[in-house]
């Protein structure tokens, strides 16, 4: 029967007549049939399987057809095969052409290739042009062209063999080379993909190649090509035919621009999508990401704690320990400083949680210190008076205990022969300041992220501050991490962090002048301490300065935290006062320990000194003052940035001011950090001439010495002889 | 960071405490667009802000059709008026490396050479050059150094075409979370230095269209990058420890990424002691 692979006849089954435009509507919605499309070349091919596939059955109706067509294009259609199998050989022969005409039916060619054709096989011998064609498939040339050529050949080929078939359908035979698609109203001319002769102007093909020189061999070539495309990969189990079909479906669905540039990526995506479906359940398990846990913690911040009644709210409102973090963040944001609003709000809630847990009188968001693995968010608090928890001074106690144990052991060994006792006396430890004074005035809590529990930092000792000045290390983010440095830092990262916080606070906590004033109770300065007054209070009569004044001169700002002396404390303490008893003991011993030099009392700048007296570094002032905006001066905020501690900022606007720190926690130094050198080797014993080695005498010196000795000996003998002689003479005389 | 995504990007890098004021944000939105129009850039990146002692420099970069070509750099003191910086040459970079200390904030400020060999001095005198170097030149050199050392992009974000030009990869869907935590998924966006030193075995695994740059894995010293998950694990933030202030962000499985510099423009030479 005639397979109308080319086109359905005008008087054909109505569905065919409708099918082309209808088909196109289904497949390519929104495109008018008149527009020449890049895919138009597919259209005829796709349309043709439709009629082709239904040809044999005569049952399929037009209504099915678009879907059926799609199925026929992209998937093998099992039902198609059944009716054909029952047919006689001729039909099977015709079916062998079906693949040529319906190239997307994947099963048919395989079936039919193995079908014994008998005598007809001979006629399907590949001839040269066909070989060229099939080889061109292998060479992977432009698939469009090849497909088109194959289609045309299939059209051509399909014509003749099916003309002899029984008229199962009403399809008519068509003259070779008839333009089948004129009915569709597309462009005309030899350069249209659907026109005969399209693509045949390529070198190697004559204009008449769409005639049917040897349709059988061409059909065979096409079947071979299709069979090759349908080969399943031994590795992945896919075949190129299906893959290309899937890819083209995806492209046609999504219609990206410049698709030829990303075709390889689309191919990869299609392959990847294949696997995705099968491994659905496994993938779900992997979805438990750490970010979900973090989100849980942050969500917990937003839940109102149980039992929070009105009473507590009143208390809080009365005392106001919770700082208005968002307000501070707003002012700093005017200068471009600060965290994102989300993070600020989380910190706000985290502080609220801290206050509800600990008995806190005042609380302030001190800042954020960045670390290698995690960051620190730091809150500065003051406890209620009397509610302070006593810290366990575990570290110091352990150290002293260790020394005591060591001494006992030494005493035991004294009874035996022991090496000379060391006369080294370590310098006395400067005691740390009491909680609530000096460097330990405030207590600091840290957490890595808002939502995580707050950890209290231990108090800082002067030794830690002194050592922290000499080292420069990044924080890792874990409080228990060791600090490996030279000179060895007495403590772990929590102590180092606390020391840096103390240094930064002492150096950069400033306020506009007049905000704080000295309490009037302590009128006179203490003579001994010389540290000046240590307490201050808010000035109820504070007159805010204008932004211009605050920015122009640095003398309008004062430090309201005591600076830390070289000793490591804010208030100087002579560590040797306590050691008088030890000195008496030493005097009893033979070897006197060297008396330490009397320490000069260290004096630091008094409290509330203006910032203008801060030392700059080289030619850079210690602070940079700027208004937040030059465009709207009446609402500008005065911003100070520290140059000595980069990351420390202060703002003042009207009666409000605050300090904050965002940085890595290190001081600025234009010179490179030079680590302390190890101290020189200690003297083991006192040197003197008796144990000092001298050089061995040389040979000449020895001989000279010997000669001198002999001379002396000889001289001595002569004298004796003379004496003897004289004695003898004297005796003789008598 | 891309000028178009500036507001969102600033939120993501704000973890370091440095950002822009609302005024600057507002004006940048407009002035960067005008830059694009005037200079016919295809892309405009807001590079960052260098804090001087008396003022700050805001830097923008413009990219042409080949994203890997040398970028045009512009600076501004107020984010409104931009001046084009001269391209950086090796001479300038070498000269500026000797300068230490903060930027002053005044582009016409002149630095004097304090430490200089007699040979260099003779050479300079012969050339007729002065011993002064302007801050603008130092700015050029600094930006070039920072870009060369720590300007990074995620792997796969850019592809190299066979003709040699580099474009954004339209198929880049973002790194996965596991990939985003590894330093090998990020590349320096400059001429590669180590690529040719790789063994043949490593080279065989590379994809020449996306792996044409150096990765961060072999940066010296090791540990000079911190990788953190911020904002509850939704953003991967890389911070450079060699140039303190450079922050790179990327939201995994999305196309959002970018880097910005907020700092003083000084190299952290103490890094080996601090790690």
Automatic annotation (TrEMBL), chain B:
<dbReference type="InterPro" id="IPR055316">
    <property type="entry name" value="RSP9"/>
</dbReference>
<keyword id="KW-0282">Flagellum</keyword>
<dbReference type="GO" id="GO:0035082">
    <property type="term" value="P:axoneme assembly"/>
</dbReference>
<keyword id="KW-0206">Cytoskeleton</keyword>
<comment type="similarity">
    <text>Belongs to the flagellar radial spoke RSP9 family.</text>
</comment>
<dbReference type="GO" id="GO:0060294">
    <property type="term" value="P:cilium movement involved in cell motility"/>
</dbReference>
<dbReference type="GO" id="GO:0005930">
    <property type="term" value="C:axoneme"/>
</dbReference>
<keyword id="KW-0963">Cytoplasm</keyword>
<keyword id="KW-0969">Cilium</keyword>
<keyword id="KW-0970">Cilium biogenesis/degradation</keyword>
<dbReference type="GO" id="GO:0060091">
    <property type="term" value="C:kinocilium"/>
</dbReference>
<dbReference type="GO" id="GO:0044458">
    <property type="term" value="P:motile cilium assembly"/>
</dbReference>
<keyword id="KW-0966">Cell projection</keyword>
<protein>
    <recommendedName>
        <fullName>Radial spoke head protein 9 homolog</fullName>
    </recommendedName>
</protein>
